[in-house]
Amino acid sequence: MCTKSLFLRMCIWRNSTYEQETFAPSILHKLAVIEVPIHSLAGYVVLFKTPSRMESVKWMIGAYLDLFLSALSTQFFLLPAAAGHSQGLYTFIGIPVKWQAYMFISAICLAGVSILGFFESRFNAVVRGRGMSILKSKRRLIYIGGHYIYAFVFILPITFTPPDQTSGKFYVRAMLPCVPQEIFDHPDFFVYAIDITLLTWIIGVSSVVISSECLYFFTRIVIFLSSTKAKSQKTYKLQLHFFIALTIQISIPLLVVICPIGYIVFAFVASHFDQALNNIALNFMAMHGLISSAVMLTIHRPYREVILKMFCYTCFYEKLQRRSVHTEGTVVVVSNHRI
Q1: pLDDT at position 195, please?
Q2: Would you list the domain boundaries of the chain?
Q3: What is the 3-state secondary structure (H, E, C) of the chain?
Q4: pLDDT in the model for residue 135
Q5: pLDDT under 70: residue ranges of the chain
Q6: At 15, phi and psi to the nearest 5?
Q7: Residue 277: alpha-carbon gap to chain centroid
Q8: How far apart are CA 32 and CA 101, in angstroms?
Q9: What is the pLDDT of residue 9?
Q10: Are 271 and 9 in contact (CB under 8 A)?
């Protein structure tokens, strides 16, 4: 126990607002008020206004992860210790903290698998020229379905084997001597694991494998689109523009997740504890779905046109067109004919 605490290179506690368990809810619960209408709007547009050529982006709503963090289960983790507690609707209705932690880690993995599914779908449609549904291809169904199943089960070995909570709290208390005692006295405080080696390996290997697969499909698509294979120039441009738009749609929100995950990995590897950065990282991650939906609605022209029509832009524009103004010398003639 004491030996482990010696390996913690830095334990920082400033007793600031950013370190308190109330910091994340004070921001994320308010953020949820913005997220719900934006995700509802994005869901409506995607489900009912999506052109047939854009069916492959229906999964890009990306709302669950940030709604989970902002409203359902706001996390207060003492990283690099696998311990902490949750606040939100799930806690209010009595879902155990360990299952909330399981859902949180699984949600991050599911986001990665969804991105992998996008690149795999684009690879089949662009490179292989077979834009078939996953359900119509057994091999694709096994490949993508297997990844989704893995996202739900890969963390279960840790979830089903939590340590004795009394000894676990003593262990984490010795590991993080700078943390106030009232944090450990919280009634929902839970130690997910004492030895984080297995947890680190499971998450690390999963991240590397999924990232490598995404990089493979992305590289193959880029090489294909940059080649001079015989195909219609119009088709080539459509494929290229569509792929660029979808890549932007994914890349911007992805950075919102990569940055905090990068810090979390650093905290584990460097044995660095700074609760202010822990809280900020989780807050930052909670914006993933919001940014994803906003980018989706603006980057694709069909979605953008639907949104503009919904806010009466088209109606306003047509009125301006009908009310054309002609200047003849110093006389201004206003006509109300339809253009």
Answers
A1: 81
A2: 18-319
A3: CHHHHHCCCEEECCCCHHHCCCHHHHHHHHHHHHHHHHHHHHHHHHHHHCCHHHHHHHHHHCCHHHHHHHHHCEEEECCCCEEEEEECHHHHCCCCHHHHHHHHHHHHHHHHHHHHHHHHHHHHHHHCCCCCCHHHCHHHHHHHHHHHHHHHHCCHHHHCCCCCHHHHHHHHHHHCCCCCHHHHCCCCCEEEECCCHHHHHHHHHHHHHHHHHHHHHHHHHHHHHHCCCCCCHHHHHHHHHHHHHHHHHHHHHHHHHHHHHHHHHHHHHHCEEEHHHHHHHHHHHCCHHHHHHHHHHHHCHHHHHHHHHHCCHHHHHHHHHHCEEEEECCEEEEECCCC
A4: 55
A5: 1-10, 46-63, 66, 129-136, 228-233, 235-236, 239, 246, 249-250, 253-254, 289, 312-339
A6: 60, 40
A7: 19
A8: 20
A9: 57
A10: yes
Tokens encoding 253: 């929100």
Domain spanning 18-319, CATH class: mainly alpha
**Residue for token pair 């994340």:** 24
Residue 140 tokens, joined: 């694709």
The model carries a pTM of 0.74
pLDDT of residue 312: 65
The two three-digit tokens of residue 282, written as one number: 């989780």
Side chain identity at 11, as an amino acid letter?
C
Do 207 and 111 form a contact (C-beta atoms < 8 A)?
A: no
